[in-house]
Amino acid sequence: MYCNLTLPSYTADIVDIGIQNTDFNYIINVGTMMMIMVLIGVLATIALSYLSSKVSSAYGRDLRKMTYEKILKFSNFELNKISRSSLITRNTNDVYQIQTFLAMLFTTILFAPILGIGSIIKALELGTNLLWIIVVTFISVVYLLG
Question: Which of 26, 51, 70, 80 could be disulfide-bonded to 18 (CB atoms 3.0-4.6 Å)?
Fold first, then answer.
């Protein structure tokens, strides 16, 4: 997230400008901006976790309901063919695994490209000569995954 990527710049400004010029007010102002960025980052992380848990829980609920309704339509022959413990496992543990995967997908896998794009934007803002490393890495990852 962009908020996390701005913190090193603020720290550098505190050291390079605030401490070097012994400007206590500047240090307080930049520190306040850092705290605001941290707060925004924390709120965004909480919102992302909340939304991902809501979506994955709703999907798990719907999947359990569909599985349960399907099991209720089984004939006696089919019920005798499949053990009761297997049916219980399918309706609880397997759905839980899918639900957990979805929650991790939303919080981790979908967040990584956003962080990567934010890193590229931040590198462009800083005007670093090492931007080519990011571009080569990005192209390599896309090539390896594609």
Answer: 26
Q: Could you give the C-alpha distances from 28 to 1, 13, 19, 45, in angstroms and in order?
A: 24, 12, 11, 25
Cβ burial 83-97 (10 Å sphere, 16+ → b, else e): eeeeeeeebeeebee
Mean pLDDT of 52-65: 92
Q: Can you tell me the distance from the alpha carbon of 62 to that of 93, in angstroms, rounded to the nearest whole number?
A: 15
97-120: per-residue pLDDT in tens? 999 999 988 888 877 777 777 777
Query: Under a CB-based contact definition with an 8 Å cutoff, are residues 85 and 140 in contact?
Result: no
pLDDT at position 28: 93
CA distances (Å), origin 98, targets 22, 53, 89, 102, 104: 55, 12, 13, 6, 10
Residue 144 exposed, middle or buried by CB count within 10 Å (0-12, 13-18, 19+): exposed
CA 36 – CA 43 distance, rounded (Å): 10
